[in-house]
Amino acid sequence: MSRPLDLAGLRRFGFLTLAGYSMIAVSNAIEALRMANRVSDAPVYEWEIVTMDGAGMPASNGLALHPTVAAADARPFDVLFVCGGVDVRTATGRTLLAWLRRQAREGVALGALCTGTFALAEAGLLRGYRCAIHWENLSSIREEFPEIDISDDLFVIDRDRLTCTGGSVPLDMMLRIIEARFGPARARAVSAQFILDRSRTGDEVQPVPALADAPPAMARALRLIEKDIDRPLRIADIAAAARLSVRQLERLFRRHTGATPAAYLVAARLDRARRLLRQTVMPVTDVGIACGFVSAAHFSTAYRSRFGCAPREERKMRASPALLHPHPSPG
After folding, report:
1. How many domains are contained in the chain?
2. What is the pLDDT of residues 88-117, one digit of tens each?
3. Do 141 and 238 belong together in one domain?
4. Which candidate, 25, 48, 201, 321, has a CA 20 to 30 Å from the CA of 241?
5. What is the CATH number of the domain that holds 236?
6. pLDDT tens digits along 237-263
7. Residues with Cβ < 8 Å from 108, sequence gap 6 or more?
8. Which domain holds residue 297?
9. Which of 163, 194, 225 is the last residue of a domain?
10. What are 281-308's pLDDT values in tens digits?
11. CA distance 150 to 141
């Protein structure tokens, strides 16, 4: 059983950048350390950018951080963060996983930013831990690694595993580390330099876009849909969760989504199915079941109607980066 991690004892940080990593997530983490050095007027933290071969790794925005060090040449770290982004599965190979397992055996605390959590899970390094990952990848990683406790929280520090959702949240996690060593005044000084009015705690639930501006009744309905999307759901059950009548629920959904609750539910199931087809290697039939479709034929017909191709065709196209990632990367 791993012992609690002494956050105050962390001095040397490594950031292992995978192909297509999220630049904003890595930059927020490093900038927090840089600013801590500045307000402390001393090099209290140090960090290195790591790649497996030492060459600069392009992020999802096409830029690369320098200087970098090859994994084999890196001096020991107190904590190593795996930095993921788009198409993390392709960026995670056997050599990398073996190196991560070796770091764990050598007692290095391991963390992840954005989708880097997938790499730790694939390496078998998150069993028995709670962890966090970007909301866009929650459903796929839960299906693929049901033995891991994957949280909706912004970030999770569970003993010697530090996982974070991405975006600007790594800054909040680093502020927690800075506060553990120097106290709240120093953490506030760092926050002030970045014009932050507050730092978020790790146990705050990451916002899901559909819930961001929803009225309370709508949010209750959407949470039930998200939670039980793999089960048969009656509109009456959704209305009861929202504490509304079915007619009130219909009006609410039309006003805020432009669709009926039934149409929204089908669309939500299909959107989740698309993420699972793109982000996992689950059999197509299992994807349909995980998204609440009891009939493979119904799943295929509904999927083709919404996306213009059958689920199996979607799976075949997943090797194309342009089709895999038509939108900006998470985080």
Report:
1. 2
2. 888 899 999 999 999 999 999 999 999 999
3. no
4. 201
5. 1.10.10.60
6. 999 999 999 999 999 888 888 889 999
7. 76, 77, 78, 79, 80
8. 216-318
9. 194
10. 889 999 999 999 989 999 999 999 999 9
11. 8
